[in-house]
Design a protein that fits this description.
Number of domains: 2
Order of helices and strands: EHEEHEHEHEEEEEHEHEHHEHEHHHHE
CATH architecture of the largest domain: 3-Layer(aba) Sandwich
Largest sheet: 9 strands, mixed
CATH class of the largest domain: Alpha Beta
Radius of gyration: 26 Å
Bound molecules: adenosine-5'-triphosphate, magnesium ion
CATH topology of the largest domain: Rossmann fold
Strand content: 15-25%
Structural class: alpha/beta
Distance between the termini: 55 Å
Number of strands: 15
Helix content: 25-40%
Length: 402
C-alpha cells in the first residue's frame, strides 16, 4: 500500500481577502492540535489546499481523516497519493493505488486539474489517459460521465501530482473561533446541541450555560448535559459549561405567580442570568435551540417577551427548522442518542397545564412585580460553577455542589 496523504480544500475562506491569512493560521492550528493526539503528521498549506502528510508508514491516516472531516472551513477533503509529475509516474500510481479504492463500484469518471500550466498535457487529455489506465486495470468498471458511482481525480500541483478517488464534502463553515465566542443555552434536549454546532460552524467558540433544578432534576440530567457538551467538543475543541441552579426561583414562581406564566417568567430569569454569564465570560451573543412555534414558549409573542430582557443578540439557528430536520442534524453530529436519554429538564418541572401562547408583556411584568427579582437573580448567580470539557479528555468527575 502506498503512503496516503490528506488534502483539504478551503471553502468560503477563499473569499475573505484580508482575513485570509488569519483564517488559514486558525485552520492550521486546529489541524495540528488534532494531529498531536493521533501521530506524526506534517501539515502545510499551498494553493488553497492544506496538505497533511504522515511522517512514517505507521501513522493512522484514517483516524486523522475522520478528524479532518470535523474541522470547519474546508469545502472538501480526500485521501490521496502523491507521485512525480510525469505521465508514467501518474500511470504507475493509478495502477497501484486505485484498484483498492474503486473496488465494489460499477461506474466511474476521471477528472483532471492542472494548476501547473507548464505540464505538457491539458486536463482533458490527462483525464482520458488515466481513465484508460483504470479501465485496463479494472475491466469490470465502466465509464459514466454524468452519474458515476465514484470520481477519480488527478491534480497536477506545484511540486507533485496527486491521485484520489472518493473526495468528500468537508465540514463547511468558517474556522472555529474566527467570529469570537457565543454562550449556548444548553438543555438536555435535541435542539440546543444542534444550535451550538451550527453557530460553531459559523466561527464561534462555544461556552455553554446550563440551568438545573436539583433535586427536581437529577444528577444524571447534569451528566447528560456534560456528555452532550463533550460530544460537541468533537467540533468545538473545548466547552466551558457554566451551571446555575434555578431551584429556588422555580419554587418561588410556583408559590407566587399565576401558573400560566411560569414558563415565560422562568425564561426571562434564564435570559437575565445568561446576560450576566455572557458578560462575565466574555461572550458576545446568546444561542438557543428555539424553533418558531415548536412549543408554547416558542411562539412569536413568547419569544418577544423573553427577548425583551436579552442584552445580547440571541442567535436561534434552528428557528426555521422543523423538528425532523433538527433530529436529522442531531444524528449527523452525533448528539441525538444522548439527547433522548430520559432525564428531567428544569423546564419540565412545574410546567403549566395551559401555558400562555400569546402573552402580553405588561401582564408578564405585573407577575414579575410580585417577586424580588434582584435577590432571586443574585442567589441563582451565586450558585454558578463551571466545568471545562475538552475533546480527547475525559469529562471531569468531581464537579458540582450537590
Ligand atoms: P431543547 O431540545 O434544546 O431542549 P426544547 O425544544 O426542549 O429545546 P425548550 O425546553 O423550550 O425547547 O427550550 C428552548 C431553548 O431554551 C433550548 O433550546 C435551550 O437553548 C434553552 N433551554 C431550555 N432549557 C434549558 C436549560 N435547562 N438550561 C439551559 N438552556 C435551556
Ligand atoms: Mg428542552
Amino acid at each position: 500500500m502506498m503512503r496516503e496523504v490528506i488534502l483539504c480544500k478551503y471553502g468560503e475562506l477563499i473569499l475573505k481577502g484580508a482575513n485570509r491569512s488569519r483564517f488559514e493560521s486558525q485552520l492550521i492550528r486546529e489541524l495540528r492540535r488534532r494531529a498531536a493526539h493521533i501521530g506524526n503528521f506534517q501539515i502545510r498549506w499551498a494553493q488553497s489546499t492544506v496538505y497533511i502528510e504522515p511522517q512514517t508508514d505507521t501513522e493512522d491516516v484514517e483516524q486523522m481523516y475522520q478528524q479532518v472531516k470535523k474541522v470547519f472551513g474546508f469545502a472538501s477533503v480526500t485521501k490521496a497519493v502523491a507521485c512525480e509529475k510525469t505521465m508514467d509516474a501518474i500511470f504507475a500510481a493509478a495502477r497501484a493505488y486505485l484498484p483498492e479504492k474503486l473496488r465494489g463500484y460499477k461506474t466511474f469518471r476521471c477528472e483532471a486539474k492542472r494548476s501547473d500550466k507548464m505540464f505538457p498535457l491539458k486536463s482533458p487529455a490527462i483525464a482520458a489517459e488515466v481513465g484508460g489506465v483504470v479501465l485496463e486495470a479494472m475491466p469490470n468498471l465502466s465509464v459514466d460521465l454524468t452519474h458515476p458511482d465514484i470520481t477519480v481525480r488527478v491534480e497536477i500541483r506545484d511540486k507533485m501530482a496527486y491521485i484520489h478517488a472518493g473526495q468528500e464534502r468537508g465540514a463547511g463553515g468558517i474556522p472555529l473561533g474566527s467570529g469570537g465566542k457565543g454562550l449556548l443555552l444548553l438543555s438536555g434536549g435535541i435542539d440546543s446541541p444542534v444550535a451550538g454546532y451550527m453557530m460553531a460552524k459559523r466561527g464561534l467558540y462555544i461556552d455553554a450555560l446550563h440551568f438545573e433544578s436539583y433535586p427536581y432534576t437529577s444528577e444524571q440530567a447534569r451528566e447528560k448535559v456534560l456528555e452532550l457538551a463533550h460530544e460537541l467538543c468533537e467540533y468545538c475543541r473545548e466547552i466551558r459549561v457554566h451551571v446555575i441552579s434555578l431551584t429556588h426561583i422555580q419554587e418561588v414562581l410556583r408559590d407566587t405567580c399565576e401558573e400560566e406564566y411560569f414558563t415565560l417568567l422562568l425564561r426571562r430569569f434564564m435570559m437575565e442570568l445568561a446576560n450576566r454569564t455572557a458578560e462575565e465570560k466574555e461572550c458576545t451573543a446568546l444561542i438557543t435551540g428555539e424553533s418558531l412555534g415548536q412549543v408554547a414558549s416558542q411562539t412569536m409573542a413568547a419569544i418577544c417577551v423573553t427577548d425583551e430582557v436579552a442584552r445580547y443578540p440571541v442567535l436561534r439557528p434552528c428557528i426555521g427548522l422543523d423538528k425532523e430536520e433538527i433530529v436529522e442534524r442531531a444524528r449527523q453530529i452525533g448528539t441525538f442518542d444522548t439527547s433522548i436519554l430520559p432525564y428531567e429538564d428544569c423546564c419540565t418541572v412545574f410546567t403549566p397545564r395551559h401555558p400562555k401562547t400569546r402573552p402580553e408583556l405588561s401582564k408578564v411584568m405585573q407577575q414579575e412585580a410580585r417577586l424580588d427579582r434582584d435577590a432571586l437573580l443574585q442567589e441563582a448567580w451565586d450558585s454558578l460553577y463551571t466545568v471545562a470539557v475538552r475533546q480527547f479528555e475525559e469529562i471531569p468527575l468531581d464537579v458540582g455542589n450537590v
